[in-house]
Amino acid sequence: MANIGKSITIKGDLTGNEDLEISGNVEGRIELPNNELTIGAEGRVRAEVTAKSVVVVGRVTGNIIATERIEVQSEGVVEGDVKAPRLVVSEGAVLNGAVEMSGGKAASRSPAPPQRTAAAAP
């Protein structure tokens, strides 16, 4: 796993083919289509993020797209839209943005037929 330390600031596009943990500051675009991205407790990201899986413990300002899963832990803050087949938001986490959950097994199931209830006689 690669690591961007607390004292590091990156401005621009960040791509790669290995898991990455960000404890510093990143501005721009992050693309890790086959890997996991972790925003550590001290990590600050202002970017459009695309990854297989994203775990937010720090702060992200920007949209996040994950092909498998997004997790926002209790200290995490996300200011932007999220899109993933699975989303985990822990109690205490902040998520300000639209949520789209599509793809994966949950979306491929047929919706349950509507339930009919009998009205009570007056």
Structural domain count: 1
Could you estimate the helical fraction of the residues in percent? Answer: under 10%
Strand pairing plus helix content: what structural class?
mainly beta
Biggest sheet details: 12 strands, parallel
Please state the overall shape, judged from the principal axes of the Cα atoms: globular
Strand segment count: 12
* Helix-strand pattern: EEEEEEEEEEEEH
Strand coverage percent? over 45%
Gyration radius, in Å: 18 Å
Give the helix tally: 1
Average pLDDT rating: 88
* Straight-line distance between termini: 67 Å
Low-confidence stretches: 105-122
Would you mind describing this structure in some detail?
The chain has one helix and twelve strands; from the N terminus they run ββββββββββββα. It is mostly beta strands and 122 residues long. The protein has one domain (2-96). Strands 1, 2, 3, 4, 5, 6, 7, 8, 9, 10, 11 and 12 form a twelve-stranded parallel β-sheet that branches. The model is unreliable at 105-122 (pLDDT under 50).
List the helices and strands and how they pair.
Blueprint: E1 2-4, E2 9-15, E3 20-22, E4 25-39, E5 44-56, E6 59-61, E7 64-72, E8 77-79, E9 82-83, E10 86-89, E11 94-96, E12 99-100, H1 104-108
Parallel strand pairs: 1-3, 2-4, 3-4, 4-5, 5-6, 5-7, 6-8, 7-9, 7-10, 8-11, 9-12
Concise overview:
It is built from one helix and twelve strands, in the order ββββββββββββα. By secondary structure, the protein is mainly beta. The C terminus is likely disordered.
Tags for this model:
122 residues, mainly beta, 12-stranded parallel sheet, 1 helix, 4% helix, 55% strand, disordered C terminus
